[in-house]
Design a protein that fits this description.
This protein is α/β, with parallel strands linked by helices. The chain has 2 domains: about 200 residues, 5'-nuclease (Rossmann fold, 3-Layer(aba) Sandwich), CATH 3.40.50; about 70 residues, DNA polymerase, domain 1 (Orthogonal Bundle). The protein contains 12 helices and 8 strands. A 6-stranded mixed beta sheet has the order 5-4-1-6-7-8. Helix 2 runs parallel beside helix 4 and helix 7 crosses helix 10. The model has no long low-confidence stretch (mean pLDDT about 95).
């Protein structure tokens, strides 16, 4: 049985970990460590569950705008992150690579873009992908070869394929950017079409097939260019640059050494035990 590629939205789960774990977890230099520990435990659990051939974790570059920010004034505005979270986000890619996994981060791209690029590449190679993300924009990636893992409650993940996207949104995965453009997205500050909610957006897409086809039929004439912009913003950029993604063998020992250097000793002990189990062939 061919093993899937596991692709993870690092920022999504780092944020969840930061808010879920106590701020009393500290690393060397009395710096915050809870987000690192929570994210690491999540990643190890996901690896054990999915047994992937390789892992890629995508990251936002928070200090560099993307084309989305330049194109839409107010995009993702109002987001303020604690300094301790930002500090931990800076070093988490180092932990990922210490595990023997790949990390993708580049100015001008969001974590979502690396997910899309990895999915496209893996599907072109005939492989399967598991995408872990708390962002429903990732539903646009669902296919017969790609499943989305979405957190629904503590420790539980829903598996989202094309049927689940249809059940939740009433549209096909490839229509999700059009759906977001019409409905809007309050978290990203995408306004959407005036007076259009999710049910009407889905109905329009079932009738016309796409936003572009609806515009060609004279719908939303006054908002056409804005809606095209919103669709572009909601579409993940599969041209994002990727690192090489050959089959990987985890380097738990290196990750344990890094965790020990950070004085996150319980995490280091867990990683050391994983290394021992690997050597014993368990």
């Amino acid at each position: 049985m061919n093993r899937p590629l596991l692709v993870v939205d690092g920022d999504s789960f780092a944020h969840r970990s930061y808010h879920a774990l106590p701020k009393s977890i500290r690393r060397r230099g009395n710096k915050g460590g809870g987000a690192i520990v929570g994210f690491a435990n999540f990643l190890l659990r996901l690896y054990a569950q999915e047994q992937p051939r390789a892992v890629l974790v995508g990251w936002d570059t928070l200090d560099a705008p993307t084309y989305r920010h330049r194109a839409l004034e107010g995009y993702q505005s109002g987001r303020v992150f604690d300094p301790e979270l930002l500090d931990q986000l800076d070093v988490m890619p180092q932990f990922v690579t210490a595990c023997g996994f790949a990390a993708a981060k580049a100015p001008g791209y969001e974590a979502d873009d690396f997910l899309a690029a990895a999915v496209m590449q893996e599907e072109q190679l005939g492989g399967a992908t598991v995408v872990a993300s708390g962002d429903r924009d990732a539903f646009q990636l669902a296919s017969d070869r790609t499943v989305i893992l979405q957190p629904v409650r503590a420790g539980e993940m829903a598996r989202i394929g094309p049927a689940e996207v249809r059940g939740r949104y009433g549209v096909e995965p490839k229509q999700v950017p059009d759906f977001i453009a019409l409905r809007g997205d309050s978290s990203d500050k995408i306004p959407g079409a005036p007076g259009i909610g999710p049910k009407t957006a889905a109905s329009l897409l079932r009738r016309y097939g796409s936003l572009e086809a609806a515009l060609a039929q004279g719908k939303f004439t006054a908002q056409a260019e804005q809606l095209r912009l919103y669709r572009s913003i909601a579409t993940m950029d599969a041209a994002a640059p990727l690192p090489s993604l050959p089959d990987q063998t985890p380097t738990w020992g290196e990750a344990a050494a890094l965790a020990r250097e950070w004085e996150l000793n319980r995490l280091a002990d867990r990683l050391t035990e994983l290394q021992s189990e690997t050597r014993r062939g368990l």
